[in-house]
TrEMBL record:
Pfam families: DUF3611. The chain crosses the membrane at residues 22-46, 66-85, 114-139. The keyword Membrane applies. This is DUF3611 family protein. The keyword Transmembrane applies. PANTHER family: PROTEIN TIC 21, CHLOROPLASTIC.
Amino acid sequence: MTGELDYSLPPAVRRIASTFRLIGWISFWAQIVLSVVSGFLLLFAISGLSFRQADSNQSSPGTGAGLFFATLALFVVFFSAYWAFRYTRLARKLRSSRPDARPKPKDAVRAIQVGLIASLAGMLLTQLGAGAIVGALIFKSFEQPTQGGVILSPTAVRGFITSFDLLIVQANTNTSIAHFVGIVSSLWLSRAVNRQ
């Protein structure tokens, strides 16, 4: 039946529906995998940093704005992945045998615009988070002793860059890549719709 339905659809609609389906699934799975990995890395890093702070009774400069922006960007990736899934549902509607049930071209363009805006907002949040995280790491690197300095107090260890700090950087990088996938997907779909 799918073959018969494909032949009854205009070629442009068939091409757009196929593109929405393919790009939607690729974008969905890429963003889900990257965001789940980022989520686990952030949870692990936050738990490690909270234990370290409890031991030293001092806050780490890497836990403030950087974690806040990285976490917000991660939530936006989950929304963007949901929106990529909606692209696949839009593709299904485009393949409808009833022309009146098919979405209008402006509905497809609006869906692409929402996906693009979400990914761009998420990319902005990851860049703000990256700036705060890197700034905190630079600040910590200045506190480290140079040329084999001796540490006399246990609280001086707080100034060392640890693996938990690097996990935050990795989580933010994965989130940035996920947003990049969302941006590329939206632009690719926009190109497919405008090619008609």
